[in-house]
Amino acid sequence: MKNKDIISELEYLNCNRTELLIRFTAIFLLALFSLVFGVSYPYSDIIFGWAFLMLFVKIFLLWHGSMLLINFSIKKFSLFDETLKLFIFQFVSLFTLVTIIVYLEFFVLESVLKQSLSYTVKFNLFLGALLSTYLISTIYASVAFFQQWKINLLKAKELEKSNLEAQYASLVNQVNPHFLFNSFNALLVLVKDNPIASKYVESISEIMRYMLQSNEREVVTLQEELLIAEKYAFIQINRFGSKFTIKFNIDPKYNTFLLPPLTLQMLLENVVKHNEISEAHPLTVNIYTIEKPFLIVENKMQAKRESEKSLGIGLDNIRKRYQHIFGEVILIQKTEEHFTVQLPLINPESQKK
């Protein structure tokens, strides 16, 4: 483990210990305060030690139980997109938590400590526990909301910076696209008698044009991506011959589904860059759809002995764009034999809502 990783881990552990110490101190003081100033019957008739232990355990369970439920609900539901679902889940789950804990309290008081509890006492105990739990949970949820807002703000700034850098790089690399395509047209005239060479130049030209146009679009259809992927496949198959194969098995019903532009090309470039392709080790890439719906890009693992240096921007770029545009996660599976990437295909109807 690197020194930076060790330091980060120690800082995380110290932060956790400090937070736990603060929580236990707060629970201790709340239990003591409740016993001395806030609670009369039935705890006034119980030995101090037992009464304090009962209150400490009750507050501990309510506090930590509510925090666990809030953390779970925040992970399950989006704070900004599913606010109503989040509120309903928290309200119902916290009510259930309080009901269970208070009924356990009633059981211990009546069956173990032999206290007689009237309906009014039970109601007051339940209402007090419910209101205090909702109060603590509201404060905690507000803090979590603010923290998530800050995280989203930082992500937005980071993404804006990345977009500006990408736009600048795009400008640098695309100084004069008209000159580039005019050159391709001139080259086509020179190779017009060679069908394969003509198609090769046309494929490069179409890929370049698609790359330029993609800078202005966040999403494209699967059909558009496949057309460019097929042109890229043609270039690589002409480069490697029978040693390299790309097989497409796409259900046409997903042709209008959406994904970020150049996703397939990036994945195919990664395959070519990091795998050995030779007579002894031919390589096949399978691109197909499944019902989730996902687009699967799969190849056999046969890593180069001296793999080209990776800048680490391919998969990371795709992952960040999926997260930013759709709020979706790509799935990557790497074994000793296969490398598989599962890309969510987004129904265009869901983007209209």
Given helix and strand content, the structural type is alpha+beta
Instruction: Please indicate the count of domains.
Output: 2
Trace the largest sheet across and list its strands: 2-4-5-7-6
User: Helix share of residues?
Assistant: 55-70%
Arithmetic mean of pLDDT: 78
The run of helices and strands is HHHHHHEHEEHEEHEE
The main β sheet shows up as:
5 strands, mixed
Question: What is the gyration radius calculated from CA atoms?
Answer: 31 Å
**Spatial separation of the terminal alpha carbons:** 46 Å
Q: Report the portion of residues in β strands.
A: 5-15%
- Number of helices, counting only DSSP H or I runs of 4 residues or more: 9
Low-confidence stretches: 1-15
Instruction: Sum up the overall morphology in one term.
Output: elongated
- Strand count: 7
Description:
The chain has helices spanning 3-38, 48-76, 83-112, 119-173, 177-190, 195-214, 222-240, 263-274, 314-326; strands at 220-221, 244-249, 258-259, 283-290, 294-300, 331-334, 338-344. The chain has nine helices and seven strands; from the N terminus they run ααααααβαββαββαββ. It folds into two domains: 3-167, no CATH class; 217-351, Histidine kinase-like ATPase, C-terminal domain (Heat Shock Protein 90), CATH 3.30.565. The strands form two sheets. It has a five-stranded mixed beta sheet with strand order 2-4-5-7-6, covered by helices on one side. It has a two-stranded antiparallel sheet with strand order 1-3. A hairpin with a 3-residue loop joins strand 6 and strand 7 (338-344). Helix 2 (48-76) packs parallel to helix 4 (119-173). The longest helix is centred in the middle third of the chain and has 55 residues, at 119-173. It is elongated. With 353 residues, it is α+β, with helices and mostly antiparallel strands.
